[in-house]
Write a structure and sequence with these properties.
- The chain is α/β, with parallel strands linked by helices.
- Among the domains are: 40-163, Rossmann fold (3-Layer(aba) Sandwich), CATH 3.40.50.980; 461-565, ANL, C-terminal domain (GMP Synthetase, Chain A, domain 3), CATH 3.30.300.
């Protein structure tokens, strides 16, 4: 490009002219062979057509709901919003046969974002319009189908807007793992800065090829899975996340078939592959091209990395491909990342000191230690601090505190929430400086420049003055009995006069369970032995009973609400 881009509009326009026939996106509808492809020139043309439609129905700065299943139509609509200077608001689409069940979530986002229009496929548009009681709930929001034949004729009517780096790009609603989803305001400058950061961390080039199954409605799937490849100029193959969940082999099969170099996901994705991919399926894979296997779950579990690397080593997977990283929607996406082509760093910490926010590293691996994987170092110009929650001063190295971030990737705030924005994005240290920081809500520490995540403040369980992290207890629970599903437990506390009561919710597998008393006894013993805690109540539920985000994170705050309301589908006896 002859000048520095101010937005992804500049970048796509450039690629459409310089590389018109180069593959931008391949979408495998069935997760295997039924593919839809689009080039840079085709995507630019569709984006201009949708933008022209938007310019006749909305004005710059208006919001547009994007109600699409993952795929090329979603991507074209997102870029259409950028081209029209309208703020895209991606939401998880409802299934046409279950509109009533899913519509409430979309309408809650709409009530917050106050969109002027909603973009959606014609099939869903027709279903909504045919049912007055559903259509009426959208109120004055204009419903615009983006895949009709006549829209293609609008491409030459598009008027290119002037876009500056500090102009707003879209609203990125948080996953809702610890609170109700909030709209994070992302500027074009935030986006370009973070995309550049990711590219440097992953060591991308025009020869890279990515594969992603991550849902595009949240930060990891949208920014790393859809926007980063276009920013850096390499193709990506996408598969529906449900196709991956139903058959994890499809993910690794796609990497093998297209010789992908970049792919990843949260910790549970690797666990699922270990559990579900059989030996005979494994023999069909060639994973030798996989250079960057990023893992964005916090914390990253070292056992998962070891087991995955060992299980797929014979198929060409290299342990050094793992790239643990840390980020959040409020900082666009990535904050830190490990070094490419280096074995992940693992430190073993004394549990007793960690409970007091102190870090004592030991070579000993035992029941009284906890293993943490480094999420890498600061690879950009971001300012990362560990802050004491009581004094609001910077912690020393090897001291646990809240992670604060400042820099060009940090978003502009929460949409229409000034008080929450001030608290989260306007934090100041007590040293008298004027700089403001983003409070991430995550706990961690720095050791020799590497960032280690210990947990979430809102989920922290404090008993007798000691800190306990739910994910540690949940791992213990899941290993206590074979009937408990992986990533199928949720732990939280409820205050009652005199003490915090520990509550456990578990999803169980009927195929391996003997009786419920046996499972409950195993949980109580494991939690007492490994954490010194008494479990006050245990709820057994079916697979899918625990509310989770689309990226697999447990919604602890909803678990607590459901428990207090008594709305879990509890299995009493077996």
């Amino acid at each position: 490009m002859t000048h520095s881009p101010t937005s992804l509009v500049d970048i796509l326009r450039y690629r459409a002219k310089a590389q018109p026939n180069q593959l931008a996106y391949r979408y495998l509808v069935d997760g295997e062979y039924d593919e839809v492809v689009i080039t840079y020139e085709e995507l630019d043309r569709r984006a201009r057509s949708i933008a022209a439609l938007l310019q006749s129905s909305a004005k710059p700065g208006d919001r547009a709901l994007l109600i699409f299943p993952a795929g090329v139509d979603f991507i074209a609509a997102f870029f259409g919003c950028l081209y029209a200077k309208v703020l895209a608001v991606p939401v998880y689409p409802p299934h046409p046969a279950r509109l009533e069940k899913n519509l409430s979530i979309i309408l809650r986002v709409a009530a917050d974002a106050k969109p002027t229009v909603a973009l959606l496929p014609s099939s869903l548009h027709e279903v909504i319009k045919s049912r007055k009681e559903i259509a009426d709930q959208f109120g004055n929001i204009k419903l615009l189908a983006t895949d009709t034949d006549d829209i293609n004729d609008l491409k030459d009517e598009w008027q290119q807007p002037q876009i500056k780096r500090n102009d707003l790009a879209f609203l990125q609603y948080t996953s809702g793992s610890t609170s109700a989803p909030r709209g994070v305001i992302i500027s074009h400058g935030n986006l370009l800065h973070n995309l550049d950061l990711i590219g440097k961390c992953f060591g991308v080039s025009g020869e890279s090829h990515a594969v992603s199954w991550l849902p595009p409605y949240h930060d990891m799937g949208l920014i790393s899975g859809i926007l980063q490849p276009l920013y850096s100029g390499f193709p990506i193959t996408l598969i529906p996340h449900m196709m991956f969940l139903q058959r994890p082999f499809r993910w690794l099969q796609t990497i093998s078939r297209y010789h992908a170099t970049i792919s990843g996901g949260p910790n549970f994705a690797y666990d699922l592959c270990i559990k579900k991919i059989k030996s005979e399926q494994k023999e069909l894979l060639d994973l030798s091209s996989w250079e960057v296997a990023f893992n964005g779950a916090e914390p990253v579990y070292h056992k998962t990395l070891d087991q995955f690397a060992d299980y797929f080593a014979a198929r060409g997977f290299h342990r050094k491909a793992f790239l643990p990283c840390y980020g959040l929607a409020e900082s666009t996406l990535m904050v830190t990342g490990a070094n490419k082509n280096s074995t992940p760093l693992v430190q073993h910490l004394m549990n007793s000191e960690l409970a007091q926010n102190q870090v004592i590293i030991t070579p000993e691996i035992a029941g009284h230690t906890r293993a943490l994987v480094s999420c890498g170092q600061n690879i950009s110009d971001l300012d990362i601090r560990i802050v004491n929650l009581e004094t609001l001063t910077s912690c020393n190295e090897d001291e646990v505190g809240e992670i604060w971030v400042r820099g060009s990737s940090v978003a502009c705030g929460y949409w229409n929430k000034p008080s929450e924005t001030k608290f989260t994005f306007g934090a100041r240290l007590t040293n008298g400086t004027k700089e403001t920081f983003l409070r991430t809500g995550d706990l961690g520490f720095l050791h020799e420049g590497d960032l280690y995540i210990t947990g979430r403040i809102k989920n922290l369980i404090i008993s007798e003055g000691k800190n306990h992290y739910p994910h540690d207890i949940e791992k213990t629970i899941e290993e206590s009995h074979p009937a408990i599903r992986q990533t199928g437990s949720a732990v939280f506390s409820i205050y009652k006069p005199g003490a915090e009561n520990l509550i456990v919710i578990v999803e169980i597998d009927y195929k391996v369970i003997a009786n419920s008393d046996e499972v409950i006894k195993a949980i109580r013993q494991a939690v007492s032995m490994n954490h010194g805690l008494h479990v006050n109540d245990i709820v057994l539920t079916n697979h899918g009973g625990i509310p989770k985000t689309t990226s697999g994170k447990i919604k602890h705050f909803l678990c607590k609400e459901y428990y207090l309301a008594g709305t879990f589908n509890e299995i009493k006896t077996i």
